[in-house]
Amino acid sequence: MEYHRVARSGQVPDGYVRRFYAGELEIALARLRGTVYATSNYCTHLDCLLSSGKLVDEGIGCSCHGSVFDLETGDPVAPPATEPIATYPVREEDGEIFVGITGEDVKAGGPRRRKPLQHETR
């Protein structure tokens, strides 16, 4: 696992979620009640950006359909999502935020926007 510097501490105020990159991996970085969390940036329901959502008491809420995910485990705590999101270890040192990722994280993560449907041509 390699830790990547992704942001200055002040870039993620308490109660907010923002999009950043850890190397090639797009992540949502959130601070809730003083603790910084890193998750994948795409909801497992319909691939909406979690960094466009809001933090709620239970975790990170998706702005598209209201799914909520636990920030520590990635488990869905409110529907419609039923699959967990990825979570990554975070270190905050000397005013900087670092996120730990592996090569497998990069392969499994990254933008998962669905490709447009290919219409048959006649």
From TrEMBL:
Coiled coil: none annotated. Keywords: 2Fe-2S, Iron, Iron-sulfur, Metal-binding. GO terms for molecular function: 2 iron, 2 sulfur cluster binding; metal ion binding; monooxygenase activity; oxidoreductase activity, acting on paired donors, with incorporation or reduction of molecular oxygen. InterPro entries: Rieske_2Fe-2S (IPR017941), Rieske_2Fe-2S_sf (IPR036922). The keyword Iron-sulfur applies. Transmembrane segments: none annotated. Residues 3-99 form the Rieske domain. Pfam families: Rieske. The keyword Zinc does not apply. SUPFAM superfamilies: ISP domain (SSF50022). This is Non-heme iron oxygenase ferredoxin subunit.
